[in-house]
From TrEMBL:
<dbReference type="InterPro" id="IPR015421">
    <property type="entry name" value="PyrdxlP-dep_Trfase_major"/>
</dbReference>
<comment type="similarity">
    <text>Belongs to the class-III pyridoxal-phosphate-dependent aminotransferase family.</text>
</comment>
<dbReference type="Pfam" id="PF00202">
    <property type="entry name" value="Aminotran_3"/>
</dbReference>
<dbReference type="InterPro" id="IPR049704">
    <property type="entry name" value="Aminotrans_3_PPA_site"/>
</dbReference>
<dbReference type="GO" id="GO:0009450">
    <property type="term" value="P:gamma-aminobutyric acid catabolic process"/>
</dbReference>
<dbReference type="InterPro" id="IPR015424">
    <property type="entry name" value="PyrdxlP-dep_Trfase"/>
</dbReference>
<dbReference type="InterPro" id="IPR015422">
    <property type="entry name" value="PyrdxlP-dep_Trfase_small"/>
</dbReference>
<dbReference type="GO" id="GO:0034386">
    <property type="term" value="F:4-aminobutyrate:2-oxoglutarate transaminase activity"/>
</dbReference>
<dbReference type="GO" id="GO:0005739">
    <property type="term" value="C:mitochondrion"/>
</dbReference>
<dbReference type="InterPro" id="IPR004631">
    <property type="entry name" value="4NH2But_aminotransferase_euk"/>
</dbReference>
<keyword id="KW-0032">Aminotransferase</keyword>
<protein>
    <recommendedName>
        <fullName>4-aminobutyrate aminotransferase</fullName>
        <ecNumber>2.6.1.19</ecNumber>
    </recommendedName>
</protein>
<keyword id="KW-0663">Pyridoxal phosphate</keyword>
<dbReference type="GO" id="GO:0030170">
    <property type="term" value="F:pyridoxal phosphate binding"/>
</dbReference>
<dbReference type="InterPro" id="IPR005814">
    <property type="entry name" value="Aminotrans_3"/>
</dbReference>
<keyword id="KW-0808">Transferase</keyword>
Amino acid sequence: MAALRVSRISLLRPIPSGARALGPKARPFSVSAVRTAASSLFPDEPARPTVKTDIPGPVSKKYIDDLHEVFDTRSLNMLADYNKSIGNYIADPDGNVLLDVFPSCYAQIASIPLGYNNPGLIAASKTPEMVSAIVNRPALGNFPPYDWADTLRSGILKAAPPGLNQVFTAMAGSDANETAYKAAFMYRRQRERGGPQAAFTEEELNTSMNNTMPGSANNLSILSFKTGFHGRLFGSLSTTRSKPIHKIDIPAFDWPQATFPQLKYPLEDHVAENEAAERASLEEVEHLIQTHHAKPAAVVVEPIQSEGGDNHASPAFFRGLREITARHGVLLIVDEVQTGVGATGRFWAHEHWDLPSPPDMVTFSKKAQAAGYYYADPALRPNLPYRQFNTWMGDPVRALLFRAIFEQIQQRGLVAQAARVGDYLYAGMQRIAERYPDQVANLRGKDRGTFIAFDSPRRDEVLHRAKSLGVNVGGSGATAVRLRPMLVFEERHADIFLEVLEKIVAS
């Protein structure tokens, strides 16, 4: 079908004030600017969303009630019908089909890279290699497949950040961060003892069983940033600072936190203020490294604080962070669980920073469909076996899937596409922000692919209304509306989002 050659962002009539936020009364939906040319990857992808019922509708409610008897459904966003979901669109059992622009469902918390029911990934899942990995799931630390090195080199390590050539595979993002923290602590203590050959003392061995020093290094820590998110396990949760609901009632380590720069927008109008905020943050990091009673073995940072409100900082800030950590012998862990695998217009977001030396570890998960951390220094391997260990130590199924994902990203130029579509989407949102500055504020994410966000004084209403109009978008922090589309997101999908956004903010 030929693409429609009309204005990309049209003026839309406001929704009447009495209209319902969700449901059939909000259903009329016209997208005059949508490009309807079918994607070669998903020829059956819908041209636009379809909303038939309230969300959740009657069929979904029945399934939810049944599920709630055996599973906690209180965090449920919507019930999905994955057999009918395709490309950038997610379906539910009531026949609603939504453009999936953001995590949770929104691209499955930013973890779907190549669209629903991607034919290339389906083909990869049917190979004998994949079937063997599924039915013979190995305990990788004890019984890895004979070709495990080939699997890693052809996939996970082929995608490794520049300068990092080894990997420890894990189960999920929280697990990736936890094991990276463990590596940092063991590295620090080995160095303090004089090297990996130094033996443990009898006192260290005995006191470790009582969780006391010197065996338990309670005088060490991981330094993180306020409003950061690094997971929900015990160590990762102690570095998570985004919302009290994540942490309340859970024992936590007394570890330091620094202020992440709170930039003002537009950036070009607040250069001096933003430089001062970043400088103050770096000074605080250095002060904590030097004075905190639990000495940081590592600093962990997200390239873009996602859960905490989509907070950005400049490449200069991160270069400063690398310089400080290197000077003080503190490891730098870059948490790329959400930012990795192409969505920022680079395969790894930290590639935007032009660092003088690579991070010491880079954790990954989500869009990789696998998890773990990359590193280069052999000393980050503990001096004895079983110190960094668990039953599965990752999953060959996920490693094979990441290989197929990486191959498709390369073949289709999807990182460059994310950069191009992100520029297009940002420009459209900037035009809306100029017309409705009180509704679309602090627009951020320029030149960061589709990692785009803005603040709204009526954020929850925006999210609710967008869903009623067929677009699944989400929020973070207190006021942020953020986008996390898949790498197969195109300009025609951006057109739909832009029209829906303008319809909402104009009403």
